[in-house]
Each structure stands twice: as structure tokens, then as C-alpha cells.
Amino acid sequence: MRGRAPWSGGLAHWVEDGVAYLSIAFTWRIPEAYSLAVFYRAQGFKVRAGGPATFVRRRDLEDVAEVGGEYPDAVSRHNRDATVASRGCPVGCWFCIVPKMEGKDFTLLPDFPVRPVLCDNNLSALPADFQDHIVARYKAEGVPLLDANSGFEPRTFDDEVFRRWEPINRGPWRFAYDDQDDGPHVERVMKMLGHVRSKLKRVYVLIGNEPVASCLDRLNRVIAWGGEPHAQPFIKLNALEKRPHVRHDWTPQLLTDMARWSNQRRWKYVEFSGYRRSFKTRERSDLQGAMI
Question: Fewer CB in a 10 Å sphere around the end CB: N or C, the chain?
Fold first, then answer.
């Protein structure tokens, strides 16, 4: 099925005209990318490396690859059904690489290839006429929008934006709830989406950036507002291991537990205070049966 193609997991590589290309999304894939670069060089290929990870860890690959530059439509190497219609984001979140790498001004790509997975950073903040352009192209080509992958920004999502995208969006409505200040904006959006099924109201909730109680409160608010939270533990932009950065009153295990409780939808059956990462076989069987 279109739009269900697998993702690369943050590291894509391919060979074209004697050049081996490495596209690295996540910094924790840098060590593997380094080994691949060494392998390709040994086979006689010129090696080029790019992607968000190289923006913050460029020096880690400079002795084995030409780092930087552009490769058209590189996102499709990570998922053949993915596309991008714009670059940049005006919000400037401190934990996000996008404004640092792509800028806080939008770069519009009007001739983007229309595919089911749209990976723009902030659809609702785009100029209204360009949003109309994107929607019109999906309608004209008859391609379903199955996943607005990075989603919409709650502060700029309003009735006009909702009406514009509703005719083509066949996937979840994705938003971010990064800190307590986002609360009123997320609540307004959730009320606006009141008639939408709960599983299609997906809210990325950053955890670990605020104390435990504050992050849990945000997860519970999403649930109370009729949405489904997806917890994302805070990881440093230059991390070489996929491990959350521990701050405030968190521990690594607590970050893992809260993410699992949220993302495995355990909240449907137990509050986090009652969640146990190991429980009796019978209880596990009952829970699995209830989730089928």
C-alpha cells in the first residue's frame, strides 16, 4: 500500500555514478555511517555524506567523506513515499535542529514531488497561498495524504487551516506539546478537532525537558482532551548514542517507563502511578487480550 513504505531508521546509503552517498538523519547513526564510508572508499567509491546529523557532527566524518552539499529529494531515500514541499521553521525551538540548519525563514519548493508522506516542518505556519498550493497539487494528482509527518504547530493552527487540510488529510493530525506554555494552544486545537477520532489526534509530548510532574501532566492533559500522546524523551542534538539526556528529577529508567506507558497506550488501562514494567504473566495476557 502506498504510504506504508518503511523508513530507513535514520541512515540511508546508495551508489550513483561512482559516488557512494550517505544521508544521516540522527547523530547516533554516525558511527555506523563512518564504517560504511570506510567500506565504500575501500571499494573505490568517492563518498559524500549529508543530512541533519552531519550538521552538528561534521568533523566525525571529514576524514572519510566529503561532507555537506545538496542531493535532490534525499528524503525519498529514507522512505520512497516521503516528500518535502518546504524547508525551515520560524518557531526556533531550542531543542530542534531545523531552524539552525534550514533557517527560520521558509524556503518554498513549489515543484515538490507529490507523495503520501509529507515531511514539512511546520505546515500551519506556511503562507496561506502556499498551503493552498500544496493542497491543490494533492487534489490534482489524486494522491492521498496519509501522513503529515512533522505536523502542524498549535499556535498557528486555526479554523482556516483545519478547513484547508481536512479534505486531503487521511492520516492523523499531528501536533507538539513541548512545554507547559503550549497548553492553552494545544487545548484549543483539541477542541477544534472534537469530532475527529481520538487515534487520529496525535500529540508529540516532549518529556525530560521539564520536571517529571510537569511532563506527566502534559501527557494526561492530552488524554483528557480526547487525544493520544506520543512521548518523546529529550535527546541532545549531538548524541552519539540513542539515550535520553537526564535532567531535573528524572532517571533513565523513569524516562523509559513513561515513554512506554504512553506510546504503548498503557494509559488506557492504568494510570502511570500504577504502571509496572514487569507484571505477572496472567495480567500481561489479560492486557494483551484487551488490546486486540
Answer: C
Check: CB of residue 148 under 8 Å from CB of residue 169: yes
List CB contacts of 110: < 8 A, sequence separation 6 or more.
Answer: 85, 130, 133
Q: Phi-psi region for residue 261, left (φ > 0), alpha (ψ -120 to 50) or beta?
A: alpha
* Distance between CA atoms of residues 173 and 285, nearest Å: 32
Residues 54 and 68: their CA atoms lie apart, in Å, by 7
Q: What's phi and psi for 71, nearest 5 deg? A: -130, 120
CB 170 within 8 A of CB 200: no
pLDDT of residue 95: 87
CA distances in angstroms from 281 to 71, 152, 278, listed in the order given: 50, 41, 9
Long-range contacts of 182-186 (CB under 8 A, 24+ apart): 182/154, 182/155, 183/218, 183/221, 185/154, 185/155, 186/154, 186/221, 186/222, 186/225
Query: For 31, what's the count of Cα atoms within 13 Å in the CB-facing half-sphere?
Result: 5
Contact 219, 267 (CB under 8 A): yes
Q: Do residues 78 and 52 make contact, with C-beta atoms less than 8 angstroms apart?
A: no
The pLDDT tens digits of the residues spanning 86-134 come to 999 999 888 888 988 999 999 999 999 999 999 999 999 999 999 999 9
Question: Which of 256, 181, 185, 177 minimizes the C-alpha distance to 220?
Answer: 177
Query: For residue 245, which amino acid is it?
Result: H
Asked if residue 172 lies in contact with residue 204, where contact means CB atoms within 8 angstroms, the answer is: no
| 13 in Cβ contact with 83 (< 8 Å) | no
| Average pLDDT rounded to a whole number, residues 32-61 | 97
